[in-house]
Amino acid sequence: MADLPSNARPRANAARILTIVGFVFAVLALLISPIVFGVLGIVAGIVGAVLGDKPLGWYAAAASVVGAILGTVIAAALLN
User: At CB < 8 A and 24+ separation, what contacts does 34-41 make?
Assistant: First the structure.
C-alpha cells in the first residue's frame, strides 16, 4: 500500500495557515501598526510560500508590503 508521507498533510495545512495569517497581518498593517504588522505579514507570507502555498503566500507578502506602505501614508496624512 502506497501511503503519503506522514508529514505531507500538516505541512500543507501549516502553509495555508501562515498564508491566511499573512493576509490578516496585511489588513492590520493598514489599520493599526504599519511597520510591525507589515514585517510580520511579509515573513508569514514568505514562509507560507516556501512551505508550499506558492501563489497565495507570495500574494500575502505583497499585500503586507502594500498594507504597510498605505498604512504609513494614511498615518502621516492623519497626523499632519
Answer: 34/67, 34/68, 34/69, 34/70, 34/71, 34/72, 34/75, 35/68, 35/72, 37/64, 37/67, 37/68, 38/64, 38/65, 38/67, 38/68, 38/69, 38/71, 39/64, 39/68, 40/64, 41/67, 41/68
